[in-house]
Amino acid sequence: MELTLDELNKTIMEMRTKGLLSEALVLAKQGLLVAIENGNYGHGLDLYYQKILIHHAFGDTLSMVNLIDEYEGCCQKYGTAKDIMHFYLVMSLIYDLVGVHEKTVEMTKKSIEYATELKDLVMLVRCHNNLCYLEVEKGSYSEAMQAGLLAIAYNKELVKVEPELAKLQEIRINNNIADVYIWEGDFDTAQALLDSSLSSVLVHNHKREKVAALFGYGFLYEKQHKLEEAVIYYRQAIELAQSYGDKPILKKVMRMLLHVLYELDRRDEIFEVQRAYIDLTEKMSADNLLQQVMYLEFNQQKEKLEKKALYDPLTGVLNRHFIDSELHEWIQGAQNCQLFVGIIVLDIDYFKTYNDRHGHLFGDMILQLLASGLRDFLLQQDAEIIRYGGDEFIICIRNKDGAAINRLVMDLHAYILTLALDYENERYPIKVSMGACINNQKNYDFKNLFELADRSLYRAKNDGRATYVISEL
């Protein structure tokens, strides 16, 4: 492939934003095959996510469901906090399409939790906007407005970094908030929002969003008892949804159209729409989508997915819960195989000064850079990286050669000193103090090893920082 997987992922996102869905789907399929073949599971997960979102834009629920098993398996084995966030969003979309409202809300709120921790603007906009729609469906209009306003606020930030995507999100937000205003009887504000959606150049390349706007007009006129106008817009929405086969939206709009036709007592049209509605319902039932989704829910190995709670959302490395729930087994494995164990404790020198001078966002970027560097350096090692709290990290290493762990500690410290954050035309090198304890193949008690490594860390600090001390036990 001419594009790298990184460039490919970005290109697919841009194509989705422009509404070039068929072309984006072809690239996603090709890229996914290459990523999996080369064992590049990080990019593979991104491409799974892209592929599923494209199917969602097409209204192709069956293809989404068919991909979930593979996607979930890959998330469990190789996923970071970002991938679990994406997985929850995808599940929320699927539950919504098959009509399981409670699970849709649950999955949406879980994805919001991760997006908040990761400060992911794209997801914060999308998820809060989805929550706005879900609260409208539930009849909670105050909560819907609150979620919609949060989506607007985040979208104002998004426009600074992803202006085209922010325009598309604005259409989606306007469509949902218009529904809130319609329910509250503020028809003028609702119409202004829908006018904004349909007058956008972008909406004509996004059929799903255009259907939502047309549906909004139909609902607006229905609530104003302008039933003839409502029929026109509902029929336009149905025609457009049929053009790309969006069954869930078709069913929803047909149901609303039938209600208006009963009010108008248009018997011939009622018969025609009823027949199409029944036919559509039978086709959707034949797909067994609800049964498939509930089967997935029943058979998901939840404990594996919940293990992702062991990961720190900001940095993607393990958090201290790993020490309580998994580390004993990890060390036991080393003892059973008579491997040496090394425990490294490190923190960033003068980290508080970074935060005080440059703000917590800068501090977060420093932590993410350090975690990424640790992952890269230790990729081929039998090692676990844990964010213990704040700027303190613990690294647990197993190796058949104690001297190799000793050399690794020295090389790791030297490597970290090469890391630097480029920020606002300045370069900020990362300096860490590090303490390590390597066992003698007799002592496998983590508490003892950790305490000695921690004391070694403070010796390194007392020696002037930006250095390391290695002890043996």
From TrEMBL:
The keyword Thylakoid does not apply. PROSITE patterns: GGDEF (PS50887), TPR (PS50005). Keywords: TPR repeat. SMART domains: GGDEF, TPR. The lineage of its organism: Bacteria, Bacillati, Bacillota, Bacilli, Bacillales. Coiled coil: none annotated. Residues 339-473 form the GGDEF domain. This is Diguanylate cyclase (GGDEF)-like protein. SUPFAM superfamilies: Nucleotide cyclase, TPR-like. Transmembrane segments: none annotated. TPR repeats lie at residues 211-244.
